[in-house]
Amino acid sequence: MKTLPWLIPILLTLHNIEEGITAKEFLSPIGSRIPDFAKDLINPSYLQFLVALGIFTAIPYLCALSGDLTRKGGLSILFLLVIQMVMFINVLPHVAMATFLKGYTPGLITSVLINLPFSLLLFRAALKDGWLSKKAFLWFIPLAVIAHGPGLWGLMIVSGHIAKLLSLIVHVY
User: Fold this and answer.
1) Is residue 115 part of a domain?
2) Closest among 79, 93, 53 to 143, alpha carbons compared
3) Number of folded domains that form the chain
4) What span, in angstroms and rounded, lies between the C-alpha atoms of 51 and 156?
5) What is the pLDDT of residues 117-166, one digit of tens each?
6) Number of other residues whose CB lies within 10 A of the CB of residue 66
7) Which of 46, 63, 128, 134 has the most beta carbons within 10 angstroms of its beta carbon?
8) Is residue 30 scored above 50 in pLDDT?
9) Does the residue 30 lie in any domain?
10) Is 136 a domain residue?
11) Residue of 166, 170, 159 whose CA lies nearest to 53
12) Please, are residues 113 and 91 in contact by the beta-carbon 8 Å criterion?
């Protein structure tokens, strides 16, 4: 279990790279029917999407580097396990979108072939080796749903503001 937590940021990075490379065509504008206040959430620009991916990719590295990953019950390890639960839950929307669209969607390959099996392996090992209690595991599910839902929306709002600032800087120089 001591090396598995370090795979969380690495595998999340692979997933986000797949999404970043393949998402541009999926982020085309969907029309003027979207109210201005909701455009950053429903119809993000490619730059906004990349900023969000960058922020979300950095978070597990910060968690991994900020604490002792060999300490059972340590805050860093718990945060990383919550992040991995988010990635585990994230498999569902990827599969649902691919099914609905009847084809590939950004992040589908790494979601199914890496995140799903790694999550099962990691959580099984964490529970078995006492790094995670069953009670904490059950609490991680709603925490991950909140992080994946409202947390992601918040991240997209922040990323939208950062993307607008970056666009201004690029146009000035």
Assistant:
1) yes
2) 79
3) 1
4) 9
5) 999 999 999 999 998 999 999 999 999 999 988 888 899 889 989 998 98
6) 11
7) 63
8) no
9) no
10) yes
11) 159
12) no
